[in-house]
Write a structure and sequence with these properties.
Oligomer: single chain
Shape: globular
Largest sheet: 9 strands, mixed
CATH topology: UDP-N-acetylmuramoyl-L-alanine:D-glutamate ligase
CATH architecture: 3-Layer(aba) Sandwich
Strand order of the largest sheet: 5-4-1-8-9-10-11-12-13
CATH superfamily: Ribokinase
Distance between the termini: 22 Å
Radius of gyration: 18 Å
Structural class: alpha/beta
Mean pLDDT: 96
Strand content: 15-25%
Helix content: 25-40%
CATH class: Alpha Beta
Number of strands: 13
Number of helices: 9
Length: 318
């Protein structure tokens, strides 16, 4: 069966940051005597996950020109992520920092994004990118929440489409990043309608539907050329594409924490589609990657390798 993408190399646009995990696992942040550091941020996690699954990824983002920004760059390079399109910004911009717990019950994730460096990405920062060299552009929706990053993201979408490169958007709605929900709804809907595939959960499609039926919107958007994956947490997901739909259950695992699943899902999905046009199999592969990540500490560090994912899926074969 032919591949969906022309290559297994992806351009990922969005935020990267530092995660600090309360240690040992199970510790509340306010009671922690120590923390462990890791790469974080949805776009960075997706890029790292793609590398772990045998693909290639280049990250488009901005980081602060300081110790935290240098930490992020070093971690990306350690995973093998291409940082040629990583922009350093000065002034009062700061790379995102998240203080996170490895807990299921009442898991806290405290994110510091005042003057977020990734929001400083400018349209001119994406102009020289060779979009045609990539299999797809993956956009994480947080990049749309503020200027100039919003304009840079829409410019990247336009350039990718002009190069006949499909655009995939992970809605990635974080309400604290947006001025109001109405702006988020119209902006994310505009980006979604310019994409070939939309990944979102019930809350995110609900926001884009502006209070109407989110599942109905996912179905409506897929009535044209767009494929949509509507994630429902423990209930799995439903995918709409080419006039058809199918459901994908979650894999039963004992989770350590709830974070990182969406980023791992995207990495598993796109690397699956880079090898085959079987969308159902790729969605199932994404679900398996998500299941593995929630059983481990961290997000990027928890990403499975190809061998680990294949072994997991064989053990859970229907």
């Amino acid at each position: 069966m032919s591949k969906t993408f022309k290559s297994n190399s992806f351009l990922v646009l969005g935020r990267a940051g530092m995660d600090l995990y309360a240690d040992p696992p199970g510790t509340k942040a306010e009671e922690a005597g120590r923390f462990t550091s890791a790469l974080g941020g949805s776009a960075a996690n997706i890029a790292a996950g793609i590398l772990r699954l045998g693909g290639k990824a280049s990250l488009v983002t901005a980081v602060s020109d300081d110790a935290v920004g240098r930490f992020v760059r070093r971690e990306l390079e350690a995973y093998g992520v291409d940082v040629a399109h990583l922009v350093r910004v000065g002034g009062e911009c700061r790379t995102s920092l998240a203080v996170v717990e490895t807990r299921i019950e009442d898991c806290q994730s405290v994110i510091y994004r005042n003057g977020a460096a990734d929001f400083a990405l400018r349209p001119e920062d994406v102009e020289g990118i060779p979009f045609a060299a990539y299999g797809a552009l993956i956009v994480t929706g947080t990049a749309l929440a503020a200027e100039p990053s919003r304009a840079a993201t829409f410019r990247a979408i336009s350039l990718a489409r002009a190069a006949a490169v499909p655009v995939i958007i992970d809605v990635d709605y974080r309400p604290y990043s947006w001025p109001d929900q109405a702006t988020a709804a119209t902006t994310c809907r505009q980006a979604a309608e310019a994409s070939a595939m939309i990944i979102g959960n019930d809350v995110e499609f609900g926001v884009m539907a502006q209070g109407a039926d989110g599942l109905g919107l996912a179905r409506e958007l897929a009535s044209g050329r767009i494929a949509t994956v509507y994630k429902m947490g423990e209930k799995g997901s439903v995918t709409f594409a080419a006039g058809e739909s199918f459901e994908t259950p979650v894999f039963p695992v004992t989770a350590l924490k709830p974070t990182g699943a969406g980023d791992a899902f995207m990495a598993g999905l796109v690397t699956g589609l880079s090898a085959s046009s079987d969308l159902a199999a790729a969605v199932r592969r994404g679900a398996a990657a998500a299941a593995i990540v929630v059983t481990r500490v961290g997000c990027a560090p928890a990403s499975p390798t190809t061998d680990e994912l294949d072994t997991f899926m064989r053990r859970h074969a229907a």
